[in-house]
Amino acid sequence: MKLSDFKFDVPKKLVSLYPTENRDESRLMVLHRDTGKIEHRVFKDIVEYFGEGDVFVTNDTKVFPARLYGNKEKTGAEIEVFLLRELNSELRLWDVLVDPARKIRVGNKLYFGDSDLVAEVIDNTTSRGRTIRFLFDGTEEEFHKTIDSLGETPLLKEFIERKVEAEDRERYQTVFAKNVGAVAAPTAGLHFTPHLLKRLELQGVDVTPITLHVGLGTFRQVDVEDLTKHKMDSENYSIPEETVALVNRALDEKKRVVAVGTTSLKTVESSVTANGRLKASAGWTDKFIIPPYEFKIANALITNFHLPESTLLMTASAFGGYDLVMKAYKEAIKEKYRFFSYGDAMLIL
Length: 349
Description:
Layout: E1 27-31, E2 38-42, E3 55-59, E4 61-63, E5 67-72, E6 78-88, E7 93-99, E8 109-112, E9 117-124, E10 129-134, H1 140-150, H2 168-171, E11 179-182, H3 194-202, E12 206-212, E13 235-239, H4 241-252, E14 257-260, H5 262-269, E15 281-285, E16 300-304, H6 311-320, H7 322-334, E17 345-348
Parallel strand pairs: 1-17, 3-12, 3-14, 4-11, 14-16
Antiparallel strand pairs: 1-2, 5-6, 5-8, 6-7, 7-10, 8-9, 9-10, 12-13, 13-15, 16-17
Helix pairs in contact: 6-7
């Protein structure tokens, strides 16, 4: 497929700047692949579609406050550093993006807070990319606490055009977030509440985690018309044995395996045995799912409403079928569904 196949206009007012007051009261569009039927529900109604033996696969990655504001040594110029990933915890080496890039060079020292945290630029990786080393004498735990206190929740400013607020630290995190490492939330999971998870459990639905640390590459603009030429950045993932056992049992019993978000979908589809079963594994995946694609593990998907020409939309279209998903998006715009991270949800059956 081509990039232009995913081009359409979303009115700016439909890009949601804030979440709904209650997580599970966002709207839910339900797509039935077998009939093409589209339903309009509320997210907490999702329990009506599942029962005994079905499995929800959630992504338990936890967003860390990856955006740091600081000053350059000597000049005191204001700078912004976006932490992408830790390269070496012992040496405190990090892969980062910097702004303004032209002013931040190898050898520069950067100061954050009241000089609570100092970093030195070690290498240039791309025009905005740098490798930095934090000069910090405390323990690993103290270091991460310092990052946590100085950093800001990394809402994607290109899409959510407002200042980050205190409540974002809680609302831009799923209730099952556990393993720190993401720079963006797995947003399909933001709609769940402890009460909703309990209701699913009472219906005999198993909820089980994988971990995929969402990187910025997921949101990187696709700049090639031929989608097969787009390369995704690698993201770190792990799939535990307990999840494998539950998912494979559900597949054997012809039950639903529900990927909660495209990150969960990508992860389970990255670790499939020759006979089409999930296997426990850990490592890095750069899997990019576009139509047409034959899914081996998940047979239902929960996802948000994504922006045009995004890799997330392409993956959702591969799962739901291009024509049905595009029809659903037209309807979503007409019905004024809310888009992007803090927006509404779609369930594809």
